[in-house]
Specification:
heterodimer, A: about 575 residues, alpha/beta, six-stranded parallel beta sheet, about 35% helix, B: about 170 residues, alpha+beta, Alpha-Beta Plaits, four-stranded antiparallel beta sheet, acetolactate synthase regulator activity (chain B)
Chain lengths: ~575, ~170
């Protein structure tokens, strides 16, 4: 399709042609022509946010829960700089986004014009790719390329910076069918020889483990299905990173729970003692590996990743397979069946016997109380009431996030949205709003802390304006709990500025926004209050007052290996857990 | 078990990139942002018709770091190809330098003799100065510069290394 139109019209046409149904944005001087072009159409719905950071997190929640590309539109200068946190978050968690930023007209670039900033310069290290479109004749191509780059290969955010004069200029629009990227052609299929070797290694394994990550989710629901099929066929245990929760069903007997710093004992011990590890769409992040030189010392490691730069970055692996998780797992299945491979059933039975012993340590146990709500109890109560519903969970960042990961259980991919890599407080509410936009009929809950929620709380107003009945479940312990926990660990319990002073009355605040506020402090009232929350068809801010002293356990202290976890039955070990070297780590 | 620290190696990486605004910033930013070294950097357009530039980077790092650098560069969208000339086979490396020397009498004589023995060309002459042009491997230029140091060295301008593989094959 070739047609003359203005740059602003091209932007809208490209969005329509890319199948975009929703975008998140905030107007300003340098994007007014695009907002005007938007006014003349009704195919793409625009969600007006209250802060540009919120727009990006909404697009992230939208993308991660739907598998589509999230779209953001912000103005120049502060509009772009406010988006930077969200873009970095999306880069670290591999979320496909296209963020369109307005720019001052080309003849003013470099003159320190009003609301000018070097957007492509600022966002270069926090995007997968970015473009400054100086010529109207490049605009349509760049828009389509941006969508291609955002979602192919390892997904990520792409910024398209469009000066205002280019938005007004006229040129020929080109449809997406005529665009092919010159260089960027990521490899999807794994090397057949390596896949064969992987199957041989897997079939010979005595103590295997499948260590899965966000790449399984990014590869699409089909990847989760193939993962399940391979797990069933082999009988091998499965663990996952924070980002990969839901790819494998938590109710399955082969599920070991999350691994890593606050993962389960059985998952971490199995990682430490395994003889063959398959890392599937994960990246050996420092939250996962613990002490690197003591990480899984006796295993052969197979690493499946679409991004070659993930290979051997932190941990040296024996067999890297570059490719998309779904394709590689499918090929592994085919070869496994073709070779009539059989797991070593005797060895496997012994391995499961060992794993069951680790499981019996019950590393997620906590002391329930009848006088005060334990945060873990609150998550469990929430889970019990919503587990059979069509539910999506987002989180902020901190203790509540870890408790949610430990005590809320996921059966399906794309149901769990959390800021893993960057650890962005303020992510959860806007992400929940984005999820609700993608899934208007579903129950969407942001599990939050009272500190994190205040970082993007203004988006309550967005939820009200667009009738998005998200539920914000705040575990209020009046601390930045994870900061406080680390001050306990490293700084002698000196709680320097980690106490949440002058908290607002969250119930009144919810009402002030036009939402519903609920407060609960008594364990006996918890179930009823949660029932009330999930049955209101409006945004709810639920202020759940919990134990202020609870720490997240189990824990691999920084600088320690997987087999030196602090367990909930010996929490006092936390005091001595971290040595001088470990203190330097985060 | 203490981590095995492998000794740093010097590698010459050659890459073909789209000649578009910001591509150099992208590559330099990758090196600084991830804490890699740049010992030398040269950039120039090599094909106007296909908008291609060639960037040559000399870097040092332990072998796993060199591998990381290559795969990080390779995944940049405007990067077409990355070749590690140090491992790809034999290659030629050349650098050009312009060197200004100021002096009179014997020192001046001596500078000219040294320039001559290095096959440097004299590209500017005044009664009290020379500018020499020299081409060669970086080590040769290092040596030339150090010999001129006591003879009134004023300033040095070096291009950085340009490199290409030997033999008939292209990158």
């Amino acid at each position: 399709m070739m047609r003359e139109m203005t740059g602003a019209e091209m932007v809208m046409q490209a969005l329509i042609d890319q199948g975009v149904e929703h975008m998140f944005g905030y107007p300003g001087g340098a994007v007014l022509p695009i907002y005007d072009a938007m006014f003349h159409q009704n195919q793409v719905k625009h969600i007006l946010v209250r802060h540009e950071q919120g727009a990006v997190h909404m697009a992230e929640g939208y993308a991660r829960s739907s598998g589509k590309v999230g779209v953001v539109l912000v103005t120049s200068g502060p509009g772009a700089t406010n988006a930077v946190t969200g873009l970095t978050d999306a880069l670290l968690d591999s979320i496909p986004l296209v963020c369109i930023t307005g720019q001052v007209p080309t003849h003013l670039i470099g003159s320190d014009a009003f609301q000018e900033c070097d957007t492509v310069g600022i966002t270069r290290p926090c995007t997968k790719h970015n473009y400054l479109v100086r010529d109207i004749n490049d605009l349509a191509r760049v828009m389509h390329e941006a969508f291609y780059v955002a979602q192919n290969g390892r997904p990520g955010p792409v910024v398209v910076d469009i000066p205002k004069d280019v938005q007004f200029a006229k040129g020929m629009y080109v449809g997406p069918e005529n665009i092919q990227h010159r260089t960027y052609q990521p490899r999807l299929k794994g090397d057949p020889e390596k896949i064969k070797t992987a199957v041989e290694m897997l079939a010979k394994a005595k103590r295997p483990i499948l260590y899965t990550g966000g790449g399984v989710i990014n590869s699409g629901p089909e990847a989760s299905r193939v993962l399940r099929e391979f797990a069933r066929l082999s009988g091998y245990p499965v663990t996952s990173t924070l980002m990969g929760l839901g790819a494998f069903p938590a109710s399955d007997k082969q599920w070991l729970g999350m691994l890593g710093m606050h993962g389960t004992y059985e998952a971490n011990m199995a990682m430490h003692d395994c003889d063959v590890m398959v890392c599937i769409g994960a990246r050996f992040d420092d939250r996962i590996t613990g002490r690197l030189d003591a990480f899984s010392p006796d295993s052969k490691k197979i690493h499946i990743d679409i991004d070659p730069s993930s290979i051997n970055k932190n941990v040296k692996v024996d067999l890297p397979i570059i490719g998309d998780v779904k394709h590689v797992l499918e090929d592994i299945l085919t070869v496994w069946r073709g070779m009539k491979a059989e797991p070593d059933r005797r060895a496997l039975a012994g391995w499961w016997g060992q794993i069951d012993k680790w499981r019996a340590r019950k590393s997620l146990a906590f002391q329930p109380s009848s006088s005060i709500i334990k945060p873990q109890q609150a998550i469990k109560a929430l889970y019990d009431q919503v587990k059979d519903k069509d539910v999506y969970i987002t989180t902020e960042v901190g203790q509540h996030q870890m408790w949610a990961a430990q005590h809320f259980h996921f059966e399906e991919p794309n149901r769990w949205m959390t800021s893993g890599g960057l650890g962005t407080m303020g992510y959860g509410l806007p992400a929940a709003i984005g999820v609700q936009v993608a899934h208007p009929e579903s129950l969407v809950i942001d599990i939050a802390g009272e500190a994190s929620i205040q970082m993007c709380l203004q988006e309550m107003s967005t939820a009200l304006q667009f009738d998005l009945p998200v539920k914000i479940f705040v575990l209020n312990n009046e601390y930045m709990g994870m900061v406080r926990q680390w001050q306990d660990l490293l700084h002698g319990g000196r709680y320097s500025h980690s106490y949440s002073e002058s908290l607002p009355d969250f119930v009144k605040l919810a009402e002030a926004y036009g939402g519903v506020g609920i407060r609960c402090a008594n364990p006996a009232d918890l179930d009823g209050a949660i029932h009330e929350m999930i049955n209101v068809n409006r945004p709810v801010l639920f202020d759940c007052l919990v134990d202020k002293t609870e720490n997240v356990l189990p824990m691999i202290p920084s600088g320690k290996p997987h087999n030196e976890m602090i367990m909930p039955d010996h929490p006092e070990a936390l005091d001595e857990a971290i040595d001088e070297e470990g203190k330097m780590l985060v | 078990m203490p981590p095995v620290i492998e000794p740093a190696e010097r590698h010459t990486l050659s890459m073909l990139v789209d000649n578009e605004p910001g591509v150099l910033a992208r590559i330099v930013g990758l090196f600084s942002g991830r804490g890699y070294n740049i010992d030398s950097l040269t950039v120039s357009e090599v094909s106007h018709a296909s908008h291609l530039s060639r960037i040559t980077v000399v870097t040092t790092g332990a072998p796993p770091i060199i591998e990381q650098i290559k795969s990080q560069l390779d995944r940049l969208v405007p990067v077409h190809r990355v070749v590690d000339l140090t491992v790809a086979g034999k290659s030629v490396e050349r650098e050009l330098a312009l060197i200004k020397v100021r002096g009179k009498g014997e020192l001046r004589q001596e500078a000219l003799l040294i320039a001559d023995s290095f096959r440097a060309r004299t590209v500017d002459t005044t009664l009290e100065s020379f500018v020499f042009e020299i081409t060669g491997k970086p080590e040769k230029i290092d040596q030339f510069v150090s010999l001129l140091e006591p003879l009134g060295l004023v300033e040095v301008s070096r291009t950085g290394v340009a490199a290409i593989g030997r033999g008939a094959e292209g990158m």
